[in-house]
Design goal:
The protein is of the alpha+beta class. The chain has three domains: 2-118, Rossmann fold (3-Layer(aba) Sandwich), CATH 3.40.50.20; 135-199, Dna Ligase, domain 1, CATH 3.30.1490; 202-298, 2-Layer Sandwich (D-amino Acid Aminotransferase, Chain A, domain 1), CATH 3.30.470.20. It is built from eight helices and 17 strands. The chain has helices at 19-29, 92-101, 114-119, 142-151, 179-187, 247-262, 288-295, 299-315, and strands at 2-6, 33-37, 43-44, 50-59, 66-68, 72-75, 81-84, 109-111, 136-139, 156-160, 170-172, 194-198, 207-213, 216-224, 239-241, 267-273, 276-281. The strands form three sheets. Strands 1, 2, 3, 4, 5, 6, 7 and 8 form an eight-stranded mixed β-sheet that branches. A hairpin with a 5-residue loop joins strand 3 and strand 4 (50-59). Helix 1 packs across helix 8. The radius of gyration is 20 Å and the shape is globular. The two termini are 16 Å apart. The model has no long low-confidence stretch (mean pLDDT 93).
């Protein structure tokens, strides 16, 4: 098969941690062609075909870890699979590119489904399952946020809707005299939406990232925060710890599986703190490399199996459209 990966600049990827690299290595191991491009090169030609400037790319051992040839403008429907692996932020440009990817002609498979990428907002989609989430308020009103904090006993978490990797996340405690100033800054004086949630004290034990393929859990890692941090994200110092799924976490996966399958989400990473679902990550989820190292697995094989299965079905007439 021919695979096109839409990614951040290859030189910026962490060779030891990046999940996209694991996917590309596994695709190459299976004999597939790999081409890479940046999100800024995706375009639509006058004939209505979605194109990109793509570089044939080989995975290498050691440093450098890749070799990319000269870029060539190609229609994306000439590929069997197009991977949208651009990291957030989930901004307007990201949304525009998903619309361009929705124009990719069949039988090319786009992973994840461009419509699903637009619909499954990482912060908001989980709220379709309120019974699974901590008590939540979404607003840009400082007064409503203050009232919600009071209702919760003075303690809550706030995060911007478009943030990623823990950026802009604040733990507001009952005795913090800077709460209103923080809310003024976070909302830009009432102009920027915030998601506020009841503080879940189990965060001190860790924030669990669960990897789902076609809605089924295939692995998990516990991200344990530093003792002075409220955030457990790896890039702010969270420590990876081996873990297993609890019955409650399996219940959460079972509850959201039909919706993810319906939205065409092949690969997702959900975040669970204690008994509560906090995020559903579908844009460019990570965590596979840490799970592989801790559990001695190769979860990228599960993902490539699912992608190959779907791509084969499309080529044999089992699917329609450019999405998953």
């Amino acid at each position: 098969m021919r695979h096109a990966f839409i990614v951040d600049p290859l030189a910026s990827l962490s060779v030891g941690q990046d999940t996209t690299i694991a996917f590309m290595r596994e695709a190459q191991r299976r004999g597939h062609e790999i081409h890479t491009c940046g999100v800024g090169s995706v375009a639509v030609s006058p004939g209505g075909r979605t194109t990109a400037r793509l570089a044939p790319t080989r995975m290498l051992e050691g440093d450098p870890w890749y070799a990319a040839e000269m870029e060539v403008e190609l229609p994306l429907d000439e590929f069997d699979v197009v991977w949208m692996r651009k990291d957030p932020p989930y901004d307007l440009d990201y949304i525009y590119v998903t619309h361009l990817l929705s124009l990719v002609h069949p039988p090319t498979l786009v992973v994840n489904d461009p419509r699903g990428l637009r619909e499954v907002d990482e912060k908001l989609y989980a709220l379709r399952f309120p019974e699974l989430c901590p008590e939540t308020l979404v607003t840009r009103s400082i007064e409503k946020l203050m009232e919600f904090r009071e209702k919760l006993g003075g303690e809550m978490i706030i995060k911007p809707l478009g943030g990623c990797g823990g950026e802009g996340v604040f733990h507001l405690s009952p005795d913090d005299r800077n709460v209103r100033a923080i809310l003024e800054m976070a909302t830009e004086h009432g102009l920027r939406y915030q998601l506020a949630q009841r503080y879940v004290p189990e965060i001190r034990e860790g924030d669990k990232r669960i990897i789902l393929v076609e809605g089924e859990p295939i692995g998990a890692v516990l991200r344990v925060p530093l003792h002075w941090e409220s955030r457990a994200n790896f890039h702010v110092g969270g420590r990876a710890q081996q873990t297993e799924l609890t019955p409650r976490e399996r219940e959460i996966c079972d509850s959201i599986r039909p919706a993810l399958v319906r939205e065409g989400i092949v690969f997702a990473g959900i975040d669970v703190i204690g008994d509560w679902l906090t995020e559903i990550n579908v844009t460019s989820p990570t965590g596979i490399r840490e799970i592989n190292e801790l559990d001695g697995t190769a979860l990228e094989m599960n993902v490539l199996d699912a992608v190959e299965r779907r791509a084969d079905a499309r080529r044999s007439g089992g699917g329609a459209g450019g999405a998953a």
